[in-house]
Amino acid sequence: MVKRMFNVTAHWDDEAGVFYSDSDIVGLHIEAGTIEEFEAVMMDVAPSLVIANHVSKDELASSAPEDLIPAILWQRPTGKAA
Known about the structure:
Blueprint: E1 5-13, E2 18-23, E3 31-32, H1 35-54, H2 57-62, H3 65-68, E4 71-74
Parallel strand pairs: 1-4
Antiparallel strand pairs: 1-2, 2-3
């Protein structure tokens, strides 16, 4: 059984006025003006990026679909910007 766990963190950039992502998911780069927009993009894009960039063709062919679903650890930032 293949288990995958990834982390996504949102940081606030005062100068740019956006939340930006820090993640171990290859290809995930998010910038959003609100944390709600950030979360929407993350939920839409992150799972498919995990499949595209962290799962081999052999794993896709030999694993049950439920074993390929990633666990994405996400916690809303705390503080003034959030």
